[in-house]
Amino acid sequence: MAVRGRCGAVPLGDPLAETTPGPPAYLGQVIPVIASSRYPSLQPARGARLSEFAVYLRLGFGHIADPKAYDHILFVAALTAAYPPVAWRRLVWLVTAFTIGHSVTLALATLDLVRVRSQLVEVLIPVTILLTSIAAIAFSKGDTEDEGPTRSQLPQYVLAAAFGLIHGLGFSTFLRSLLGDEESIVTPLLAFNLGLEAGQLFIVAVVMLLGVIAVRLLKLTRREWVLILCGGTMAVALTMIIDRLNPVS
């Protein structure tokens, strides 16, 4: 059985189970440590091995920053579109709020302390993109490039933390599929989460750079940039919601 989501058909259960003839393709080139314990014939040379920490770090980065699985990218883009470089401190707080939210549910769900249907999470993620896009458009009215957001950012911080809880559940589905029967998940969980943060910061940097290009080179106002970017993320989110509701219903 599989769940349709970020990575296409994500298998429920252990994708590296003993009955599987080989490691799954989406692990790419980062299988040395995982494979060595379950596929002795695939053990790499000692000098070529990556540490378990490095494997999951890279998997976390690739999971959130993969352009082929773009829902989390769209969310971070909509979340940060209204923030020019001058507002970087407020952007740090915003990203921190999202990080706290998804770290909590990533840990709880991976430890099997919280269970939510994967199909429901897959629908809720584009809903968060849609609502975040609407909020960015609504709250950015009157903002300037020189000052950044002029209103209180508390509602944005609360929204980011709350939606982070949902995205953390999405991250946990993928991580659990990798862990399988691992006896200790502390190191993989920590490394995967740090990889997510690195990927998230990369996306923020790209969105901020594109915003600077749009404002300074293309001569758009910050408001126009937000309308263009978030209008696009809204349209994609609506399509994703419709598409993901079909299998649920």
Any overview of this molecule?
The protein is mostly helical. The chain has one domain. Helix 3 runs parallel beside helix 5. It contains eight helices and two strands, in the order ββαααααααα. Strand 1 and strand 2 form a beta hairpin. It is globular. 39% of the residues are buried. The N terminus is likely disordered. A two-stranded antiparallel ribbon has the order 1-2.
Primary descriptors:
two-stranded antiparallel ribbon; mainly alpha; globular; 249 residues; 65% helix; 8 helices
Concise summary:
By secondary structure, the protein is mainly alpha-helical. 65% of the residues lie in helices and 3% in strands.
**Mean pLDDT, rounded to whole units?**
79
Number of domains: 1
Low-pLDDT runs: 1-49
Number of helices: 8
Instruction: Calculate the terminal CA-CA distance, rounded to whole Å.
Output: 17 Å
Name the strands of the widest sheet in spatial order: 1-2
Which percent range fits the helix content?
Answer: 55-70%
Q: What's the order of the H and E elements?
A: EEHHHHHHHH
What is the approximate shape? globular
Largest sheet data: 2 strands, antiparallel
Q: What proportion of the residues form beta strands (DSSP E)?
A: under 5%
Rg, rounded, reads 19 Å
SSE arrangement:
Elements lengths: L1 E4 L2 E4 L20 H7 L13 H14 L5 H10 L7 H23 L7 H22 L14 H26 L6 H32 L4 H27 L1
Antiparallel strand pairs: 1-2
Helix pairs in contact: 2-7, 3-5, 3-7, 3-8, 4-6, 4-7, 5-6, 5-8
